[in-house]
Amino acid sequence: MIKTDILIIGAGPTGLFTVFEAGLLKLKCHLIDALPQPGGQCAELYPKKPIYDIPGFPEVLAGDLVSNLLEQIRPFKPGFTLAERAETIEKQLDGSFVVTTNKGTRHQAPVVAIAGGLGSFEPRKPTIDGIVEFEEKGVDYFVKNPEHYRDKKIIIAGGGDSALDWTIFLADVASQVTLVHRRNEFRGALDSVEKVAELTQRGKVNLLTEAEVTDLFGEQQLQAVRITKNNGDQQTLETDYFIPLFGLSPKLGPIGDWGLEIEKNAIKVDNTLDYQTNIPGIYAIGDVNTYPGKLKLILCGFHEAALMCQSAYQRINPDKKFVLKYTTVGGIQGFDGTTK
Ligand code: FAD
C-alpha cells in the first residue's frame, strides 16, 4: 500500500503543479497516471507546440513546460505510479480513501485530488479478432521501455508521429522493424517521413504501405501476423511484437462511477471555496472539473491547485492555523531543504 497526504490522479500540468503547492505546505504527494510519462495533454498531444499564455513565459513549448514543472517539484520528491489507470475508490473507516489501479496497485490518502483532464487516454485499438488475448503477450499499445525490444522482431502499425518516431528510434534497437500503414501518405512530420524513407532504402526498416495487419497467430505468445494489402495480396510475417500506434482517445473512464456529481463529462465542484466535489475529501481541479465560467486553460488549473491545497491542509491538520507565506520570504524552508 502506497501512503501519502494527497493522492493526485492525473500527472498533467495541473497535477504536477499541485505537488509544488502541497510541498510548500509540507504535504507529500503521489501521482497516478494512465500514460507512461507525466505531462498530460502537453506531453502526449502537443509537446512541440508553443504556448503563449503561461504567465511570465512569452512563449514556451508544451514539452518544455512539463520539464520545467518536473524540475520545480523535484525537491518535494513526489511518488509516481505511471501507465496505470485509477480504477476504484473506497472510503475507509478513518475517513481516508484507498484508490486501486487496473494493475492492482493500492494507494491510501486522506485527500484525493482528481486532476484527470479530459480523462484517461485509452489507446485506439485496431479491430483484429483475438487481439485482446495477445495484449502484454506480444501486443503493446505504448512503447514504455524501448530496451524491451532490443534484438527483437517488431511490427509497428500507424501513420502518425508516434508510429514514425518509434520506427526511427527502434530501428537501432530491434533486430527487425516493419512499419505497416493503410495509406501511402503519412500524417506525421515531413522530416520523420523522410527519415523513415531513408531507413527503408538502407534496409533498416521494412516499409509496407497500403496494407494492414489483419490476423495474429501464436500459442501463449504472439509469433506471427498476417498482413493484407489493399489489393488483397497477403503475407505472413514472423514477429515478437506487434505495436499498433493509432492514437489515443480520452474518456472520463472509471472516475465517472465514483459517485461524483458529473455534468457534461466533467466533475462538478464548489468554486466558491476550494474545488471540492460532492464527496468531502475528494477535490477535482484542472480540465476535469466544471463550474460556472470554467475555462479549460493551464493557468486556471494552476490557480485551482493552489486553493485546493490550502483546503487540503486544513482537512489534514484541523488543529493547525494556516498562515500564508511567500516562497521568497525569509524563514521559509527552502525547497532543497535549506532555510532561505
Ligand atoms: P491533462 O493535461 O488532460 O492531464 C490529465 C491526465 O490525467 C492525463 O495524463 C490522463 O492520462 C490522466 N488520467 C485521467 N484519468 C485517469 C485515471 N483514471 N487514472 C490515471 N490517470 C488518469 N491550454 C493553455 O492554457 N494554453 C494553450 O496554448 C493550450 N493549447 C492547447 C493545444 C492543444 C492541441 C490542446 C489539445 C490543448 C491545449 N490547451 C492549452 C489545453 C491544455 O492542454 C489543458 O488545459 C491542460 O492540459 C489541462 O491540464 P490537466 O492537468 O488538468 O489535464
From TrEMBL:
Enzyme Commission no: 1.18.1.2
SUPFAM superfamilies: FAD/NAD(P)-binding domain
Pfam families the record matches: Pyr_redox_2 (PF07992)
GO MF entries: ferredoxin-NADP+ reductase activity; flavin adenine dinucleotide binding; NADP binding
Catalytic activity: 2 reduced [2Fe-2S]-[ferredoxin] + NADP(+) + H(+) = 2 oxidized [2Fe-2S]-[ferredoxin] + NADPH
Superkingdom of origin organism: Bacteria
Residues binding FAD: 14, 33, 41, 46, 86, 121, 287, 328
Keywords for the protein's UniProt record, in alphabetical order: FAD, Flavoprotein, NADP, Oxidoreductase
Cofactor note: Binds 1 FAD per subunit.
Gene3D superfamilies per UniProt: FAD/NAD(P)-binding domain
Enzyme class, UniProt record, top EC level: oxidoreductase
Family statement: Belongs to the ferredoxin--NADP reductase type 2 family.
Protein's recorded name: Ferredoxin--NADP reductase
Organism name: Imtechella halotolerans K1
